[in-house]
Amino acid sequence: MDKLYRSSDEKQIAGVCAGTAHMFDLNVAGLRCTVALVAVFLTGAPALVYCMLWAVLKERPTAGRG
Fold it and tell me: Does the model's pTM come out above 0.90?
């Protein structure tokens, strides 16, 4: 299994959902919708986890970066 990272090429906000989706071979759009719905119904707790992952995870460089 790959290491968890933030995606630098498919990110919408910080790349946490895209990196997680790639690690677990999930649909990126589906994961984003799921995270958004869970954040609404759990009054923002997932947003806190998302922010913590944003701060902790390293961004995966793309092939185009020097």
Answer: no
